[in-house]
Amino acid sequence: MTEVAEPDADLFRMYIPDIAAFTEEGYKPGETVICTGKIKHVGSTYTDQFDYLKSLVPSSDTKNLKLTLAAPNWYHLRYKQGKAYPSDVYADDDEYFADVAKAYQDELAILYDHGLRNVQFDDPNLAYFCSEAMLEGWKKDELNAYSTDDLLDKYIKLYNECVAKAPDDMHMGIHLCRGNFVNSRHFSEGGYDRIATKLFQELNMHTYYLEYDTARAGGFEPLQHLPTHKNVILGVVTSKFPRLEDEAEMEARVREAASWMCKGSGETEDQALNRCGVSPQCGFASHSSGNAVQHNDMVEKLKLVRRVADKIWAGQP
User: With the C-alpha atoms ordered 2, 97, 188, 217, is the resulting torsion angle positive or negative?
Assistant: First the structure.
């Protein structure tokens, strides 16, 4: 993979939500990374960070630390058909994805040996499959070799291969949001309904961290498709604007989400809630150019998350 400081705009599918946001705001796509040769794992860039994090907590707490990894499909969806890698290196996406998956398998094995037991993939791309604007742009693009449904299947297979060799006690999670940009701007809109069945039932993740702070993410109905052996962390507290949410309303929204889980699984509310958590919808550091949420706002929102959690799951960590 090679960093390209000033990529040609012709490299990109301009209807992909983050690329579209760049151009709408007068930005051009910044530096990007593209495959230029056969991919293989040549050393972890995460171990130093994780080892430092371990040094800050008692050894008994190492198992509770979480590390966020980049999405394995990030430097694929944004590029036009045939532009993500050289045709003389990979014949097709399946060959390319196979080597990407092997590299992730190697990375996860190294991180496991360093004590990591909790992994979160950060992937706004999967939420783009809920965006009508992206789906329409894809349909109009005559260069695309297959449908968005087929591509989503390929991405799910890619993820499943990435985690296929992870030990049983390595917890896997994935975070879906609709993007972060300058001044807390989002990239895309659309509920999870369109992808819920595949996302929850075919993707081999233990926990889903989902954006649910505004109407752009849709309702909780898709959660009825979440299998009983999987968890969801409900991002009902926004990281996009400073206004503090109402605590009672946030509790009610979590319970509403649990009620939809019950409809799909036949569980009691308590059983559904035991598979739920509450959090901000995304990280606060949206962009180096700054955002609408200041330090004190962040502190107050995290305190709110703690209060809501203590109310719903009293006595639990």
Answer: negative
Instruction: Give me the torsion for CA of 15, 16, 21, 23, rounded to 10°.
Output: -50
For 279-311, the three-class secondary structure string (H helix, E strand, C coil) is EECCCCCCCCCCCCCCHHHHHHHHHHHHHHHHH
Which domains occur in the chain, in start order? 2-312 (3.20.20.210)
Question: What is the rounded distance in angstroms from the CA atom of residue 70 to the CA atom of residue 148?
Answer: 21
User: What pTM was estimated for this model as a whole?
Assistant: 0.93
- The closest of 213, 164, 161 to 186, measured between CA atoms, is 213
- Strand partners of residue 172: 119
Vertex 237 angle, CA 232 and 238, to 5°: 115
Q: Which of 153, 1, 143, 137 is nearest to 70 (CA)?
A: 1
Q: Distance between CA 127 and CA 275 in Å, rounded?
A: 22
Per-residue pLDDT tens over the stretch 216-245: 677 899 999 999 999 999 999 988 888 999
Identify which of 145, 156, 229, 164 has the alpha carbon closest to the alpha carbon of residue 195. 156
pLDDT at 121 over 80: yes
Looking at residue 301, its amino acid is K
Q: Measure the CA–CA gap between 88 and 151, rounded to whole angstroms.
A: 22
Q: Is the alpha carbon torsion for 289, 291, 296, 302 positive or negative?
A: negative
Identity of the amino acid at 30: G
CA-CA distance, 76 to 213, in Å (whole number)?
28
Give me 116's structure tokens: 């990591």
For residue 255, the tally of other CB atoms under 10 A from its CB is 14
